Amino acid sequence: MTSPFLDTPTAGRVGLIEARLRAALDPVHLQIADDSAQHAGHAGASEGGHYSVQIVSTRFAGANRVARHRLVYDALADAMQRGIHALAISAYTPEEFASLPLSRDR
User: 57, 31 in Cβ contact below 8 A?
Assistant: First the structure.
């Protein structure tokens, strides 16, 4: 079974994650990092990549942390099953993000 995510060259996978998150959540800020190299040799690392996502969207208003993560996972559903081994998510509303200290999480 093929996967659009797995069929995309490694360098393009961040772009695919970005496109899906932008389409689903219309973020005002989105930062994605491929952390896979930091996990080389780790059990399961060969099954998919490790990524970190910082996303700011008005769609998170009124949603708790679990609901926000669910929205991100839903946007990446097939990649989460075939291609993403681990995903670290920092999800904020614009107001929450604006109130973060500049030295933290930016």
Answer: no
The identity of residue 67, as a single letter, is A
From first to last of its 106 residues, the chain has per-residue pLDDT tens of: 566 676 777 778 899 999 999 999 999 999 999 988 765 555 554 556 889 999 999 999 999 999 999 999 999 998 888 888 889 999 999 999 999 987 555 5
pTM beyond 0.85: the answer is: no
CATH architecture, range 10-98: 2-Layer Sandwich (3.30)
Distance set, CA 24 to CA 9, 102, 103 (Å): 22, 27, 28
Residue at 29: amino acid letter: H
Question: Coil, helix or strand for 6?
Answer: coil
3-state DSSP assignment of residue 95: helix
Locate 85 and state its tokens. Answer: 């081994």
* Residue 38 phi, psi dihedral angles, 5° rounding: -75, -15
CA of residue 19 relative to chain centroid, distance: 11
